[in-house]
Design brief:
Number of domains: 1
Helix content: over 70%
Distance between the termini: 29 Å
Largest sheet: none
Radius of gyration: 18 Å
Shape: globular
Structural class: mainly alpha
Length: 145
C-alpha cells in the first residue's frame, strides 16, 4: 500500500464532510431564513410547482446529513446533482459565470456538481458509517461461517 493509498481515504472524508455541510447549510437557509413557504413561493415564481420546494429542502437536509456521516455516499452524492443542475438552469444560469454577480452566477453550483461527482468516484472515505456497518456485517458473517 502506498502513501497515496493511505491518505486518499482521509481526503475523501474531508470532501464528504464539506459537501454534507454545504447541503445542510443550504437546506437550513431555506428553512430558517427564506422559510419553506417563501421557498415554495420562489419556486412558483420560476414556473415550477411550489410544492417542489419541500422535497428539495428535504433532499438537501437528509442528503447532507447522510454525506456528513458517510452513509451510501456514492449514491447520495449522485442523487443531489439534479438539484444543483436545476439551480443552474432555473436560477443562476442567466446571471453569468461569477457567483458574485447579481442573482448569483453558476460557478458555485457547477463546482458543487464537480465535487459531488468526485465524491461519487471516491466513495465514503475514512470514518464513515458505511465502513463501520460493513465491518460489523463482515464480523457477523465470519462468526456464522
Amino acid at each position: 500500500m502506498t502513501h497515496a493509498d493511505n491518505t486518499s481515504a482521509y481526503g475523501a472524508s474531508i470532501l464528504r464532510t464539506a459537501l454534507g455541510t454545504m447541503f445542510i447549510a443550504h437546506a437550513l437557509l431555506k428553512i430558517l431564513v427564506f422559510t419553506p413557504a417563501g421557498t415554495a413561493g420562489f419556486f412558483a415564481s420560476l414556473g415550477l410547482p411550489g410544492f417542489l420546494a419541500y422535497p428539495t429542502i428535504a433532499a438537501e437536509l437528509v442528503g447532507g446529513m447522510l454525506l456528513l456521516v458517510g452513509y451510501q455516499t456514492r449514491w447520495v452524492a449522485l442523487a443531489l446533482i439534479p438539484i444543483l443542475v436545476g439551480s443552474i438552469v432555473l436560477v443562476h444560469g442567466a446571471s453569468g459565470w461569477q457567483f458574485s454577480n447579481e442573482g448569483g452566477g453558476w460557478e458555485y453550483p457547477l463546482f458543487l456538481i464537480a465535487a459531488s461527482l468526485a465524491q461519487a468516484f471516491l466513495g465514503d472515505g475514512a470514518f464513515s458509517l458505511s465502513a463501520r456497518l460493513g465491518k460489523r456485517e463482515t464480523r457477523a458473517a465470519q462468526k456464522t461461517a
